[in-house]
Backbone:
């Protein structure tokens, strides 16, 4: 018996299962209003949409077209595109496009020096006229109803930001399909549930909309943080603002198509989240922040840390087993006998049941997420199955992020 | 917060219930394992008792009347004892991943005593029925006190799988303080672990496949692995 391994396994199982059960119970309680129960706007306020662009010549045109097709009065919104020192001709593409769209309220800030996304967002905010500021990635596409479905939340003066469902834009290969399912679970349903708990820890970069007065009050985006969309969420909680989420509208975003790209992206996300946590460690167990401080943050990071410890420990055990078996083979002169297999249900240990129940609970949550998002399982089987076992890959990303952050390695935005 | 606070408690109750169910299934399976071992143990005891009865009959009626039956019983018990030993070890390992169950110690003690009985019967039958069964005795300790014992077990299992039923292997757990096993240890001069006895000759320390096969072939050149 290995008490440490047993402790890790049971702790991770308890934390993750509890969270999944909680999500499912909330879905059950809110099933009638989870997608279509959002507040309607009494009037349509002026909104500024800010699109920072750095070397986005491939994705920026579709993004701008989608902004030009928003179903919202033309005199009630403006689009501010901030060129962040692109060197691939993005600025020329933007200028040409704007010149062909005379009726659409586009503004273009063409800065030659690259200063980062957060800086560009702050620059856009400073130049904006709207009462509300939407931020959008330059490779994303918004749905036409994105403003009508979000501004209603701001009737509540404590609402600081509203986030939307994040779709993967035309997933093609296996990895994109897996990430597509991951987004359905992690960046759509889970964020909606967290908004009910007033515990949203991120305002996703592809599209989020903020109350401008709040942004001014808390000082805009942190230009020194590599996950500025997460860091700002922490400060919003501290300033007493709520972050809301709607699944009634959404944004389409491009996701990494190779494992290498995904690694870079997640390294930034996960390292950034650790750095942000250290920057705002006072949120942990902070009763003043409600469920965010005393429930979500401790459970989330305990699950991540213990899960990673379990993953590393299991990997160590696996290496040890491989070494032991190699040693056995050496002692028997590498003679392999045909394996003997006996089907005996009594050979199942408690760890098999724990593992099976974990796979079952994740499967149920994923299936429920797909159903809520009106996605059919049979059309997403590949992504669904891949997602169930992709946690191993995420563990590698987390391990690398912990290593980099705690050894003080530099983590770049791109 | 837009949801009922009771939902946190409900989720906790459901999670604890799920863990309780998993734990109960594990306990149930453990009970089934013990029952299975008990049943196999009884079966082995039956066969040993039958062999003992036949040995008594041999004394009364002579070898000719009983040797054929005894030899068939020997093949049977050899297979049963080997499987039982493996099962006890497998089940103990599975259970001990999460809890230490003392019942396996009891099972193992019983098993070791059965092995001693079987060894003693084998000797008697061998002498009276003119049988030449090659025997390996294996003395081991737990993995903490004897780092190489697992490796020795693997080597012997490998050899057994290759040439069973030509060789009868008896493995004795010396941590269990069984007087009969202690007598065997003293008799064969076991002073280090792992230790094997091949046809009355003692070899302590880890022995690889090559060494064990060499010892076997020195004592029993007729074995199929000895190549002529």
Residues:
């Amino acid at each position: 018996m290995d008490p440490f391994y047993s402790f890790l396994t049971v702790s991770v199982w308890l934390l993750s299962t509890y969270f999944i059960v909680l999500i499912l119970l909330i879905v059950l309680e809110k099933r009638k209003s989870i997608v279509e129960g959002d507040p309607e706007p009494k009037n349509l306020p002026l909104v500024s949409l800010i699109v920072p662009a750095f070397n986005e010549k491939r994705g920026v045109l579709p993004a701008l077209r989608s902004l030009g097709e928003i179903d919202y009065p033309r005199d009630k919104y403006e689009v501010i595109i901030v060129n962040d020192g692109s060197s691939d001709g993005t600025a020329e593409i933007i200028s040409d496009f704007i010149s062909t769209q005379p009726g659409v309220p586009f503004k273009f800030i063409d800065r030659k020096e690259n200063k980062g996304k957060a800086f560009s967002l702050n620059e856009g905010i400073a130049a904006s006229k709207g009462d509300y500021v939407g931020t959008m990635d330059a490779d994303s596409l918004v749905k036409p109803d994105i403003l009508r479905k979000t501004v209603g939340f701001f009737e509540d003066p404590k609402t600081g930001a509203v986030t939307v469902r994040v779709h993967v834009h035309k997933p093609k290969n296996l990895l994109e399909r897996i990430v597509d399912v991951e987004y359905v679970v992690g960046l759509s349903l889970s964020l909606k549930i967290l908004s009910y708990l007033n515990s949203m820890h991120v305002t996703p970069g592809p599209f989020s909309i903020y109350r401008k007065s709040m942004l001014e009050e808390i000082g805009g985006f942190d230009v020194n943080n590599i996950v500025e969309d997460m860091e700002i969420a922490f400060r919003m909680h501290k300033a007493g603002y709520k972050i809301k989420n709607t699944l009634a509208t959404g944004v389409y975003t491009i996701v990494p198509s190779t494992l290498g790209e995904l690694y870079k992206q997640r390294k930034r996300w996960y390292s950034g989240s650790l750095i942000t946590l250290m920057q705002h460690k006072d949120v942990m167990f902070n009763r003043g922040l409600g469920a965010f401080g005393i429930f979500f943050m401790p459970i989330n990071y305990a699950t991540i840390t213990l899960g990673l410890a379990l993953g590393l420990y299991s990997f160590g055990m696996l290496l040890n087993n491989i070494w032991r078996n190699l040693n056995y083979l050496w002692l028997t002169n590498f003679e392999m006998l045909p394996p003997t297999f006996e089907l005996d249900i009594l050979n199942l240990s408690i760890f098999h049941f724990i593992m099976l129940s974990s796979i079952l609970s994740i499967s149920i949550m994923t299936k429920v997420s797909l159903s809520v998002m009106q996605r059919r399982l049979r059309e997403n089987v590949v992504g669904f199955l891949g997602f169930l076992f992709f946690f191993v890959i995420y563990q590698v990303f987390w391990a690398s992020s912990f290593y980099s952050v705690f050894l003080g390695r530099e983590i770049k935005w791109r | 917060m837009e949801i009922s606070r009771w939902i946190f408690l409900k989720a906790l109750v459901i999670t604890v219930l799920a863990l309780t169910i998993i734990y109960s299934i594990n306990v149930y399976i453990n009970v089934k394992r013990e029952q299975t071992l008990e049943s196999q143990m009884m079966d082995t005891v039956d066969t040993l008792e039958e062999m003992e009865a036949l040995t008594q009959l041999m004394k009364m009626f002579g070898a000719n009347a009983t040797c054929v039956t005894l030899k068939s019983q020997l093949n049977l018990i050899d297979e049963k004892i080997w499987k039982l030993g493996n099962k006890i070890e497998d089940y103990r390992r599975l259970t001990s991943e999460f809890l230490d169950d003392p019942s396996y110690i009891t099972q193992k003690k019983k098993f070791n005593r059965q092995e001693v009985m079987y060894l003693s019967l084998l000797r008697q039958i061998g002498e009276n029925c003119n049988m030449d069964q090659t025997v390996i005795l294996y003395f081991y300790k737990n993995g903490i006190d004897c780092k190489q014992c697992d490796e020795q077990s693997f080597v012997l299992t490998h050899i057994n799988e290759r040439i069973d039923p030509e060789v009868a292997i008896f493995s004795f757990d010396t941590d269990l303080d069984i007087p009969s096993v202690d007598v065997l240890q003293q008799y064969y001069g076991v002073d280090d672990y792992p230790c094997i006895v091949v046809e009355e000759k003692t070899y302590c320390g880890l022995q690889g496949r090559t060494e064990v096969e060499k010892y076997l072939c020195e004592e029993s050149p007729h074995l199929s692995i000895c190549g002529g």
